[in-house]
Structure formats: structure tokens, C-alpha cells
Design brief:
Elements lengths: L32 E3 L4 H12 L12 E3 L23 H4 L3 H4 L9 H5 L3 H35 L8 H6 L3 H4 L5 E11 L6 H7 E2 L4 E10 L5 E4 L3 E2 L4 H7 L2 H4 L5 E3 L7 H5 L4 E3 L12 H25 L2 H4 L10 H12 L7
Parallel strand pairs: 3-8, 8-9
Antiparallel strand pairs: 1-2, 3-5, 4-5, 5-6, 5-7
Keywords: DNA-binding, Metal-binding, Zinc, Zinc-finger
Cofactor: a divalent metal cation
GO molecular function: DNA binding; zinc ion binding
Amino acid sequence: MGGGDRCAVGGCNNDRRYPERYIIRSHVSNLQFHSLPKDLRLREIWHKKISQGRKNYKPSDYVKICSNHFEDGERTARCQIPTLFLTPGDFSTQHSPHKRKNRSTSGVTPKQAAKATPDQETDTDRNNNACIFDSLLSSIFITWVRLMRLELSSLIVWPSREVVRQNLPDCFQHFYPKLRCIIDCTEVFIETPSSLDTQAKCWSDYKHNCTVTFLVAITPNGSISYVSPCYGGRASDKFITNDCNFLNLLEPYDQVMADRGFKIKEDLMTVQATLAIPPSTVGSLQMCSSAVKDTSKIANVRIYVEQAIGRLKNYRFLKNEIPITCLPVVDDIVIVSCALCNLLDPLC
């Protein structure tokens, strides 16, 4: 196990290969060796804590920290960051959490106590408590988002062709009687990842920022009927449409409406569906009158998908930059937001 056998904190000699030499502090009931957290931000904090007692410390993915350095005597949801005995000097002067309650009997005179730096200790404790609070808040949020997805995902329904046609608004009846859904892709800003490979996958040339993007399909009356998994901002509309499960939902003779950027006509032909998009211009040539009419007709009805996405972006979490720590549940966040949108009044 190499470098992972010994506690990485400077001055701590606890080593899994020599359990008979363990030094176990009074607040620890079962000495364990804790691996680095998966959360990249927490990892960085761990490395900074270790470097406090090791001048030439080089961060490694294989370091471990023993239970002595956690206030709960082990790594817990409340206590995810090592804060105790982080420098060699701490081992002779710092008390375990249980002993701090009896400082009056610790042998420290009032004069020695006066020489302490309470302001500095308070700042350190405040920073540690802030990290602990953020981690706890993140854990609570992630737990609830996953639970809400399980409970609310049933609100996103792919209706049958008959149901769609029975509820087809008047503005679609004449020109698009076979329309099954309107689709579009939308992007959400995310915090810039530290990994260069991940940055490259998430970089959006359109937004000039790191984003995640996903496909949304709405019924002609404005209900969200399908939402794809999230992809890095680099993914194209065509790639997302083919990679997700959307095409498998279509039936022969269905019509799908999209923006001009969706080059999926041939892909829809594989499932015998058709595509309705605004006519494209050739070079600088002016569109003919019929093309202008087609563009106007599609624009008038495609407004519903823009309004549906606008509703989606009203949720503050999707309106602002999503933190890196929440990326593992970004699909859940999007699905919950779409499901809540379907509880609102129909757009059309």
C-alpha cells in the first residue's frame, strides 16, 4: 500500500503496518485511516491542512489521515475536514476535544492563557466551521434532490400520439396536424472544472463559458414530455439527439419541430418521422415569399418551447452557475425542475 500505510500529517507516526505503536487520542474510540474525499474542493482543503505540518509536502492521491485529526474521532458528515494535531507542536500542546471541556485543570496558568492568541484561534475555528457547514449543506441538498427526482420524475410523461392529437391547440391544427413535439437544446453555466480534459468537454463556443447542455421536448400545448441527460457544452444538438433515447420514442409519420440548427432530418428518417424547421437561406440570397411564410408559421408556434425553457430557467439553481460539487446530481436537478414546471398552467 506504500504511502497510504502511514498517516500523512506531519509529526504523526501512526502506521497501519505497526498497530502496536498506535497513539490513540482520548476522543477516538476506533483508530482508522481515512482516504481523501472524492469532492475536489474538500481534497484541496485536506492537502492544505496536511501542508501545515510538512513544509515540502507534495499532494498525492494516496495519502491517508488517521482518526486522531478529526474532532468526532473519525470522518463523519458533520466533520469531514481534519482540524486537530496538524503540526508537530500540536502533539504536545493541543488537547483532544473531550479534554478541552476541563481546561481549568489542564495546568495552564492564567498568565499563560493571556499569552494565547484567541483572535487567531477564532478565525481558524470560524473557517473550519464554514467548511463543515458547506459540506453538510451540500450533503443535505444532494440527498433531497435525489429523493425529489424519485418522487417527481413521473410528472414528465411522453404522451401517446392519440393524446397529443386530442389536445392539439388550434394554431397547430391546420399546418402541423401530425406534430408530436417541439425540441430544443439549452445550456446551463457551471463552475470551471480544474481538470483540463473536463474543461475541454464542457467548453461552449456559443456561451464562451463552461456549460452543460440537455435536450428538452415539449408537447404542442407546452408540457415538458422529455428531457435528456446532461452533456458537456461541447456536445452538438445533433450528437445529443442521437445519443439520448429521444429517437426511440417516436413513431412512423410523427413530425418533430426544431430550430434551424438541428441537422437531424436523415436521423428522423430512420424512424420514419419528419422534421419541421425554418427554411435556410443560401448565401446572401433573399428568401422567397413561401419560405418567409413557412419561417413565420414555425416561429409563431416554436415560441412555446422558448417559453417552456424560460420557465425552467426561472429556477435560481439553473439561472446561476452550478457549483462543481453539484455536477454529480445535475441530471436530477434538471429533471426536478422540469417536473415542477409541469405543475404550472399549460402554455397553450
